[in-house]
User: Fold Siderophore-interacting protein from Phytohabitans houttuyneae.
Amino acid sequence: MSTAPAARVPRVLDRFLLTGTVEAVEQLTRGARRIRVTGPSLRDLQWAAGQHIRVLVGDLRAPSNWMRGLRDTLRTYTVWDYDAAGHLELCIVDHPEPGPGARWSASVHIGQRVSFTRPEGRLVVQRDAPYHLFVGEETATVAFGAMLRALPPAARVHAVLELDTPQDRLPLPRAGELTWVHRDGAAPDEGGLLLEALRSLRLPDEPGVAYIAGEARACQAVRRHLTQERGWPRRATIVKPFWTPGKRGLD
Assistant:
């Protein structure tokens, strides 16, 4: 007789997931929480600023989750900060349509055990870039914060960042060098506000490296602007769509 999937879960967790304990929870803005996790298994991880982890936000032992293909069980979050002593921080931004991940982040508490995959992803700083261009909205600013901290002070930086209001700004490094635009209550419009600000941004004549993240259609529009209107090669753009209306799990 074969073993049911839920019965095999403990062995799967031990093999593929790291586990830590929530040490602190802090509300950074009205819609973003910093969650600090610590534990011996988190020491000396291979992590590059901008990479993400997949957090277990549901119960793998629940048969209903296996019936849905685990779609409500794992959620992807960028690592806000990490140190090799075993401390990892997430900064989770609320979404207009809250799902399992948003409910998990709203209820997480100090002392809670958290399991997640090892860091991965290609949205990382290219250190040989002539300069760095960051373009995205709220969901991109977590990755951008980590990447900006990883840059040397002499690195040239340009950015266009879209938020709802100024009160939604995360504490990003080099904030005075970044261009901020605000929707003021309007819904994201497939990158229209970002594109308007980006077209007005004075950049050096030669291409740098662009990190484009956030809503999928906005990412595509920004890449088209850089490659078709400014003549950048596609290899100079690193795109990471995090979400799009009506669709889950872009990873």
